[in-house]
Design a protein that fits this description.
The protein is an alpha/beta fold. It contains ten helices and 14 strands. β1, α1 and β2 form a beta-alpha-beta unit. It is globular, with a radius of gyration of 19 Å. The structure holds uridine-5'-diphosphate. Uridine-5'-diphosphate binds next to α6 and β8.
Length: 332
């Protein structure tokens, strides 16, 4: 089986490429290297290019038959999407439409799409299942929801079946290396907290301590990147087995506040994590915690690393690699 991984040089995509390679699939990575790193795609063939480049997609799909596409190539920063929505709608929506047109033209009918818990917006329930209203509160979430609508319509009209995987907060790294979150400096909590622990960052900034949560900081559901990849494998196999497209939440169902993540990082690393408080970041919902029962029952998904400490420990392994690589003067 041959799989095209778009965004395979990025954080989650690079873990997927490794996983697909280990499972014996033929893998082609397409990545424009806007945020990914060439060396992160550790298996198969690599093509540098953009998913909005129709000629390139036509060449790829004409050159070989693909049994499925996994699409990770998105801009993902909530605050940036608030300030620069055009960038988000251009890449995440318009370029994805180009991909879908090309898939249709070449009869490539199976897609696993990286969606997000950001499609839900402000939660109305303790845990969010897939039937929760989808009312995103930022352009990033809206861009993901727009693609989900397009995918449903393409499935109904053209038979292009897609699994829409709504990630909660991806974190951690493959303990076998040599890959991990690749955004430098990045905006995500776990890598930044660990950068503060290693000394590469003077301190972590806590965005908002006045949320309606137990300690006033935002609550998120952190899920191990390799567990996300396992869900992609299951989703693709389900498509191959003839399952209709569907949306699936991917999270562990446990919420941790920003302060709890910092505390866990102190425990795991045995190091201080200096912090300071700042105002809320635009676009952040107070609490996002998943009910992932559907992925468990319909895909058979069982996260192997649901514990926050394990996720942080694996992310710490990657931070140590980065520290050694950059030989940062303040790394300790
Ligand atoms: N956050 C923070 N300081 C940072 C980065 C993130 O306090 O330097 C908070 C952020 O406001 C959010 C949570 O950590 O409540 C998770 O943010 P992240 O960017 O990791 O993921 P998101 O939930 O935005 O996808």
């Amino acid at each position: 089986m041959r799989v095209l991984v778009i965004g395979g040089a990025g954080y989650i995509g690079s873990h997927m490429v490794k996983r697909l390679g280990a499972a014996g699939f033929a893998v082609v990575t397409l990545d424009n290297l806007s945020s990914g790193r060439r060396e992160a795609a550790t298996y198969g063939e690599f093509v540098e290019g953009d998913l909005g480049d129709r000629d390139l997609l036509d060449d790829l799909f004409s050159a070989a038959k693909f049994d499925g596409v996994m699409h990770f190539a998105a801009h993902i920063e909530v605050a940036e999407s608030v300030g620069n929505p055009e960038k988000y709608y251009r890449n995440n929506v318009a370029s994805t439409l180009v991909l879908l047109e090309a898939m249709r033209a070449h009869s490539v009918n199976h897609l696993v799409f990286s969606s997000s818990a950001a499609v839900y917006g402000e939660p109305r329930r303790e845990r969010i299942d897939e039937n929760h209203p989808a009312e995103p509160v930022n352009p990033y979430g809206r861009s993901k929801l727009m693609v989900e609508h397009i995918l449903r319509d393409f499935e109904a009209a053209y038979g292009l079946r897609s699994m829409r995987l709504r990630y909660f907060n991806a974190a951690g790294a493959d303990p076998g290396g040599p890959i991990g979150p690749c955004h430098e400096p990045g905006t995500h909590l776990v890598p930044l907290v660990l950068r503060a622990a290693s000394g590469r960052l003077p301190r972590i900034t806590v965005f908002g301590v006045d949320y309606d949560t137990p300690d006033g900081t935002c609550v998120r559901d952190y899920v191990h990147v390799n567990d996300l990849c396992e869900a992609h494998m299951l989703a693709l196999r389900a498509l191959w087995d003839g399952a209709p497209g569907a949306a699936f939440n991917l999270g562990n169902g446990n919420g941790f506040s920003v302060l709890e993540v910092i505390k866990a990082a102190r425990t795991v690393t045995g190091r201080p994590v200096p912090s300071r408080v700042a105002p809320r970041r635009p676009g952040d919902p107070a609490r996002l915690v998943s009910d992932s029962t559907r992925a468990a029952t319909e895909l058979g998904w069982r996260p192997r690393h649901p514990e926050l400490e394990t996720i942080i420990a694996h992310a710490w392994g990657w931070e140590r690699v980065l520290c050694a690589r950059v030989d940062h003067a303040s790394c300790h």
